Amino acid sequence: MRSCKHFAGALIIQDVHVPDGFINAPVSVAAGVAAAGAVAVSLRGARRELGDTSRAGGHGGERTAPLAGLVAAFIFAVQMLNFPVAAGTSGHLLGGALAAILVGPWTGVLCIAVVLLMQGILFADGGLTALGVNITVMGVVTVVVAYALFRGLVLLLPRTRASVTAASFVAALVSVPAAAAAFTVLYAIGGTTDVPVSKVLTAMVGVHVLIGIGEAVITMLTVGAVVAVRPDLVYGARGLTAPLKLRVGGELVDAAPAAEPATAPAGSPRKLWIGGVVTALVLAGFVSFYASASPDGLEKVAADKGIDSKVEDHAAADSPLADYGVKGIETARLSGGLAGAIGVGATLAVGTGTFWVVRRRRTRTEPGTHAETTA
Amino acid sequence: MAAGHAHKLYRHAHSPVHELPPHTKLAAVLGFVVVVVSTPREAVWAFALYALLLAVVAAKARVPAGFLLKRLLIEVPFVAFALLMPFVVPGEQTTVLGVSLSVPGLWGAWNVLAKGTLGVAASVLLASTTELRELLLGLQRLRLPPLLVQIASFMIRYGDVITDEMRRMSVARRSRGFEARGVRHWGVLAKSAGALFIRSYERGERVHLAMVSRGYTGTMPVIDEVTATRAQWTYAAALPLTALLICLLGWTL
Amino acid sequence: MTAPSTPVPPTAAPSLDVRGLAYAYPDGHQALFGVDLTVGRGERVALLGPNGAGKTTLVLHLNGILTGGAGGVTVAGLPVGRKHLAEIRRKVGIVFQDPDDQLFMPTVREDVAFGPAAAGLRGAELEAVVRKALDRVGMAEYADRPPHHLSFGQRRRVAVATVLAMEPEILVLDEPSSNLDPASRRELADILRSLDVTVLMVTHDLPYALELCPRAVILSEGVIAADGRTSDILADEELMARHRLELPFGFVPSSVA
User: Fold this and answer.
1) Which of B1, B20, B13, B14 is nearest to B236 (CA)?
2) Residue A352 near chain B (CB below 8 Å)
3) Averaged confidence pLDDT in chain B
4) Which site among A39, A44, A193 would you substitute to test the B interface, given the most B Cβ atoms closer than 10 Å to its Cβ?
5) Is the pTM of this model over 0.80?
6) Which among B207, B222, B223 has CB closest to C101?
């Protein structure tokens, strides 16, 4: 099934499951521990996400397994759905962003982790020792980055369906190169090959920006299609409920709008958010500026002329991590810009995550669903 | 139509390898791969011995070489990557047939190819000698969180159902004269994906109802328990232990 | 053929007793408006009604998946509620419309074993229950097959077995004849007739109802609108038309009954 897709053109757009032996043992183990932790936390979070709301009562209706299982099967199937790109090449969805937006981040991580686990064991797609690396990069990083960005944008933009689709576009677009960058970091720490980190970063991120565009378009359209039919199923769009209608004399009229608790205090978070984005942009601009203004521009020229082998040899030989920060940025202008973009993405992600957690905690400490007091 | 993806992987046979309890096999493969990954790449002979070990297992399991080799194709994208390495890695250069190649690049390519191929081969042997549900039982036995095993087993059970639904939608599209040819048609495909998600999610809800109706309260009842005797463990451990011996030799020699 | 687990004295409580059941979904849509229905032990009753009449909602009340409205359901004298939920779910066997939803385990055997195992059966005892249930639907030789490798009719029979394995007091079937070819439809009818349990069958297949169920009730707009002999109900053209029920072309109930 998978093997039939292996002609040259499709290779680039293939997902990259890291095989055994690509990342050294200590880093693989560390990534494995990180992945196991993330999965453990997600197992707990998914119960809340897919919680029992209407049916089955609190008695014993644990919905996580069947729902997450079916969504995992969906992701698995969608990854087999090939999207024609052009001239005989085709790509397919990685699905991290899609899963996060549709079913929430915890369930999203679980679904991708299970898909990767099964692909590793059944199809030998991705090495068993690299399972931790694969889950961390393709499951955790894509889902977290995509969901944080998505939530942030949904909070920031007007509360409409168009905002939801736009936010899913951006979230998916950034999530793929972010995963590539995360892979590069792991590679920089524990890569077993001597390809210079800067080259890996440029190649990985460059290619994945292209993949990200495809991923973004498909994710956006898919989320849009679901939002149009069953908005209640889109986890990330739960705030968007249609106003209730009343049947008066055979005609539908809008019910008197209930006081919406979510919009009232939204002013301050929105300000906070705009502030956060501005900060992130300034930061990114500063970093990019610093990078291009750094005096090591000579090395870039050297790299372009192909006379860098000697210079970079020592860097690759010992402590690649120490050199990563400088090398990764200065090698090409492109990577500088990308680093900026990723910086914004990462900052947004962290910011939104923190904000989300804080808000969650705040809403939980405030009991009472209808009478919402002003903050 | 319902020919499951699963069944192309598993090769039914009666062999000592097939009959081993699944969790012992899983543990053995994992141990083997860890050992292979930790072997220094300069010990070329060690990798040859590993390959020989796997060949012995394949012979015992009556898995034909052609089948194994065909399944190794999954690795092709990384082979392409590995082949590039001698050209892009900086360092000491050597000349092979008039082409200038870098020595660290060659070592890197060898490292990835050897370890990756052995890993894939070991996984392929596992999947072709162990039935799907056995693998799930094995994972459960190896203390994978039960909820994760449940999710995996639902994914396996409904993977075919959903893939079939996807195929039916594609047939319906094509019978109305639609052929996805390029970027312009992504919208239609995404609509199908959206519809597929809704169907999958709703099916999940119905499955949950069916489970609750039969007394499900969040934990799967234990129906089959797999156990392994000491002899079976020893038999399964032969592979990783021999590999470990080779690995230690590789480090010391 | 198996006898019910315990001999039943004639004064025993009816298998199913629904009293004044009303229910509105959390979104405000009200589906049931006071349903009264009693099904005696060993009866086979067809539940008829147009789409959207509340049939599925009623079925989901029978084993306590939906609760919280007005009125109540009693199964063999046991009120449906939090307290006896496990017991109720064992007694009320629901066969859902799509067998793929019902057969969620990797093999037929495990699927049939799911319910009894959840109730605590283990080992040889469990094995015996599974075998018996599969024998009753004639699917014993398929025990180790994955459900998705069976034909649709076979899957529905296995779905019936998964419920029979729990020795239910009452078997509730949601559209049992849908999507079956004529031979599978007849085979399933033979199986259902051979069973010695109370049956409540939700169906749009009126000839099937007539064939299997001596008694029929019509659920319409959330209440029981008619209750009587199936042949009488199907012959009442005015009643049928009022509740959007139609016999297949050329089918005359009196010629069969």
Assistant:
1) B20
2) no
3) 83
4) A193
5) no
6) B207
